Amino acid sequence: PSHLDDLPPTMLKKEYANLPIMSRVDDVVKRVLSLEMASQKEKMKVKKQQLVEKVRRSPNDNGSFELLSLSFTVAVLTARIRTLEEHLQRHPKDKRNRRFMLMDLDRRRKMLGYLRRVNYGTFENTCKQLDIQYSPPQPYARRVTKRWLIKKALCIKVFQEKQKLKAAARLKQRRERQARARAAREQQE
Question: Taking the domains of the chain in order of start, what are their residue ranges?
Answer without folding.
Answer: 14-130, 142-188
